[in-house]
Amino acid sequence: MDIRQALHSDHFKTLDTQGLRDKMLVTKIMVPGQLSLTYSHVDRIIVGGAVPTDSPLTLSGGKELGVDYFLERREMGVINIGAPGRITVDGETVELGTHHGLYIPKESREVSFESLDATKPARFYINSTPAHVRYQLRHIRPQDASPTSLGDPETGNVRTINKYLHTDVLDTCQLSMGLTQLEPGSMWNTMPCHTHERRMEVYFYFDLSEDDVVFHLCGKPQETRHIVVANEQAVIHPSWSIHCGFGTRRYTFIWGMCGENLTYDDMDFIASKELR
Q1: Which of 128, 197, 207, 249 could be 212's S-S partner, Cβ–Cβ 3.0 to 4.6 Å?
Q2: Residue 196's pLDDT is what?
Q3: What is the predicted pLDDT for the residue at 190?
Q4: Which residues are annotated as a binding site?
Q5: Which positions of the chain have pLDDT values less than 70?
Q6: Whole-number Å distance between alpha carbons of 1 and 18
Q7: pLDDT value of position 24
Q8: Which residues make up each annotated binding site for Zn(2+)?
C-alpha cells in the first residue's frame, strides 16, 4: 500500500510540477491481476482499484491499518467501470455490471473481487474511509443513483451528477461517492469551482483515450496550479484546495468525499473572476 502524507497549503506553494504530482496524483490504480491501494493521511481515505483476471483478489489487513482485517474499522464504496464482475462479502455474492456500485459496511471480514470473464476483466474503483457504525451491504445500480443534471452548452459543462453513496440513496458513516458524466461537447467539470473546508475530495478520471488528458486545477483560489491527468488516474485534494478540470475531450469521473458531514451541497463557490 502506497502511503501519502497530508499536504499543507504552505508546502503546496513550494512544489514544482513533479513534486505536485508526487503528492497529489495517484497513477497506479487499475493494474491487471492486482489490487492497488493508496493510503492518504488526508482524512485517512484509501483510494484504489481491483482488476481481477485469472483469480479473485482479496482484501487483507496489515500493519498500515493496525487491525485484524481490512474493514474492521472502515467502510468502503466500489464502482465498476469495466466489464461485469462480482464481489463476495462474507459469503454473499453481488454481480456488478458496468457503472454498478456497492457499499460494503464496517466489520465485513472477507471481501473478494472477481471478473465474470478473465479476458474482459471488471475494473473496480475503490474508496474506503474510517467508520463508526455498521450499516447494510447495498448494491447500487445506475438507475438507483440520485441524478442531477447541470450546466450549459455555452459554458461547456453540461453534465449529469449520479450520486451513489449519498443520503438520498443509502446510509453511510462519512463516505460519499458518485459518478459524473459529461455530455458531448462539454469539457469543464464543477464550474464554478469551489472548496469545502469540512470535507476532502478525490477525483478519478476515466473514459479518456491515450491521447487525451484533463488539466485539473487545484490549490488556493488566489494561487491556483494544475496537474495534467491521464486516463484512470486520481487526484487527492485536501479540504482547503479547489478542484475542477478541463479535458481535451469529454470524459467521466468518480468523486469521493469524506469529513465532517454528508451534506453534498456544503461548499463555498469561487467566482471565476476571483481565481488567480
Answers
A1: 249
A2: 86
A3: 86
A4: 194, 196, 201, 243
A5: none
A6: 21
A7: 97
A8: 194, 196, 201, 243
